[in-house]
Design a protein that fits this description.
Order of helices and strands: HHHEHEHEHEHHEHEHHEH
Helix content: 40-55%
CATH class of the largest domain: Alpha Beta
CATH architecture of the largest domain: 3-Layer(aba) Sandwich
Number of strands: 7
Distance between the termini: 28 Å
Strand content: 5-15%
Length: 254
């Protein structure tokens, strides 16, 4: 059961990167070293046998997307919280709900904590008993090295997977998916882009799928349609987009 959902009234205003979140592994590209056929993480997801996980790696490499896919796939209760605004009281309330679901309905509870490295020791300690007993399944995502930011007791009770910057092949697949998908992507538009311009966008994305889609979306918005409603993304438009501070991250790159 998932608490990820889309508000259809706001769908058209959602950023391209948000709209293109895949619901299955079919449209998840990259991270073959942990999500290729027969790999442990893929098997856990496909069989709905998720154990406590810590996912770490740079922004835009798919950590939150995997949590989203798990949310769509699992029969467990699924809750998402953000470590920046959460607190121990919220954690204890979720754990209490998880205990009830397990004892009364024999239903597991997965708690996804984004930016888990921002939890202090007391907050991480609050998770320990329930993770150890299996009352909750923890999925933590972080851009930081978990061996420095996650307490050893949580590390030892979790499977740790590293997400790497996306390679050119994965970024090309995401680019193509964005251009062709008519429901959530840009497939309803007639878009022309030369290979060298496309390659430049992929290069400037730096292994970050979110940045790739942000650049592409901004280029489409800035490009002018011709008489035949064709949108041509030129190198000049790409350079203009890249010269502006359209991509706002905090000091840690999130």
């Amino acid at each position: 059961m998932s608490l990820f959902y889309s508000n259809k009234a706001q769908y058209k205003n959602q950023p391209l990167a948000f709209r293109l979140k895949p619901d299955t592994l079919e449209h998840f590209y990259g991270q073959e070293h942990i999500l290729g056929k027969g790999k442990v993480l893929r098997e856990l997801i496909e069989k709905d046998k998720i154990k406590s996980l810590i996912l770490f790696g740079p922004p835009g490499t798919g950590k939150s997307l995997i949590a989203h896919i798990i949310a769509q796939k699992t029969k467990s209760k699924f809750y998402q919280i953000n470590a920046v605004i959460s607190n121990v009281a919220e954690l204890r309330a979720l754990i209490k709900q998880a205990q009830y679901q397990l004892t009364q309905n024999n239903t597991r509870t997965i708690i996804f904590i984004d930016e888990i490295h921002r939890f202090n020791k007391a907050q991480q300690d609050a998770l320990l008993p329930s993770v150890e007993s299996g009352e909750i399944i923890l999925i933590g995502a972080t851009t930081q090295n978990p061996f420095f930011y996650i307490i050893p007791a949580l590390q030892s009770r979790s499977h740790i997977f590293e997400f790497k910057p996306l390679d050119e092949q994965a970024l090309n697949s995401i680019f193509e998916y964005a251009l062709k998908d008519e429901k959530k992507g840009l497939g309803k538009f007639k878009i022309k882009i030369e290979k060298k311009v496309r390659d430049k966008i992929i290069e400037k994305a730096g292994g970050d799928a979110r940045k790739l889609l942000n650049i592409l979306e901004m280029c489409v918005l800035l490009a002018q349609k011709d008489e035949e409603q064709l949108i041509e993304i030129t190198e000049k438009i790409v350079d203009e987009v890249l010269s502006q501070e359209y991509f706002l991250y905090d000091k840690k790159g999130d």
